[in-house]
Amino acid sequence: MRRSQADKDVDATVGTNIRRFREISGISQKKLDDAIGVTFQRVQKYESGKDRISASKLVETARALGCDLKSLVAGIEIGDVTLALPDHSTAALKLAANFDRIASSDSVLQSCCRWPRSPPKKNKPQFRRWAIRTPAARP
């Protein structure tokens, strides 16, 4: 199967970025090939854009060079795409990712949210509505 010019441009951009980060970090092509488990010639082909680097090798290369994946794909124009994830802040995404790791999510929710601490007193007239409490949220 023939590669399109757009594919060749992407491979060349990734290869150029790999070469730049390798030179900046002072790693030889031989050390990089040992680190990612390919031949010296394969590293040369990656850097020249003649061979396409797989996703797993791209991750290993980023680790070996001490950079992030975003740096290795910098300069690639994606165009109009639909995001797979909503556009949230990094902090919000980290919070959502770590939420399931919390041992007792009920206690965290109670401390973060404004749950009523005690029921309203019966002898005082009640002018505001209290939040609907779930069984787990009752004190």
Provide a descriptive summary of the structure in words.
With 139 residues, this protein is an all-alpha fold. Helices cover 51% and strands 0% of the residues. The chain is built from 7 helices and no strands. It has helices at residues 5-25, 29-36, 40-48, 55-65, 69-72, 90-99, 105-112. The radius of gyration is 26 Å and the shape is elongated.
Shape: elongated
- Classify the secondary structure makeup into a structural class: mainly alpha
Termini separation comes to 65 Å
Percent of residues in beta strands: under 5%
- In DSSP terms (H or I, runs of 4 or more residues), the helix count works out at 7
Helix percent reads 40-55%
Number of strands: 0
> What is the helix/strand order?
HHHHHHH
Mean pLDDT: 78
The parts where pLDDT drops under 50 for at least 5 residues are: none
For the CA atoms, what is the radius of gyration? 26 Å
The description of the largest β-sheet is: none
Which helices and strands appear, and what pairs or packs with what?
Blueprint: H1 5-25, H2 29-36, H3 40-48, H4 55-65, H5 69-72, H6 90-99, H7 105-112
Helix pairs in contact: 1-3, 2-3
